[in-house]
Amino acid sequence: MFRCVCLACNLIPLLPVMGLILLCVMRDGGPGLFGHQRIGRRGMPFTCLKFRTMRVDGDAVLAELLATDTVARKEWNANRKLIHDPRVTPFGRLLRSTSLDELPQLLNVLRGDMSLVGPRPVTQNELDLYYEPDCARLAYLSVRPGITGPWQVGGRSELSYPKRVALDHQYAEQQSLRTDMLILFRTINVVMRRTGAH
């Protein structure tokens, strides 16, 4: 309860900023927020919120690119990300590089779906494909995913997927208040310098 009260108090000053970002995102006629199903603690699915950073026809754009570009398909299969993603809008690129697109996840923290610090929230497909053997899966499912975490301060988009899984596993096994505070302080530096952001 105390955690929720503190977070709510810190969220109030951010509301005007979030409102302005929402209006800027909606200029192309699409929704301001994007919700994607992720898997949380104990395997419970939840809707992870972000400001929309992609074109409204992003799924079709990705499908066409992967069907025609073998280099992009190889990059996507390896990392589930594209360094030069044609789906991302110019304003969305700015939001991603500064991590401002993740501000709505504070609402996920208030709801108890996420923590400020934890493993990167993943989809069921990612969990099935990459979080094996069972020890990696169980470690991930033992904690709430975080807005920031070891992947954020360890390289962000520059990390390979197996490295991200390894960092999540290590975090879950060695979680402590000291580690969380260190990650939070390092996140400020990483975001300000836009280290590893794509």
H-E order: HHEEHHHHEHHEHHH
Biggest sheet statistics: 2 strands, antiparallel
Helical residue percent?
Answer: 40-55%
Please tell me how large the radius of gyration is. 17 Å
Intertermini distance: 36 Å
Number of helices: 11
Which class do the helix and strand fractions yield? mainly alpha
Average pLDDT score: 86
In what order do the strands lie side by side in the largest sheet? 1-2
Count of beta strands: 4
Give the overall shape, derived from the CA principal axes.
Answer: globular
Report the β-strand fraction as a percent range: 5-15%
Unreliable spans: none
Q: Could you characterize the architecture of this molecule?
A:
The chain is mainly alpha-helical.
Concise structural overview:
By secondary structure, this protein is mostly helical. It is built from eleven helices and four strands, in the order ααββααααβααβααα.
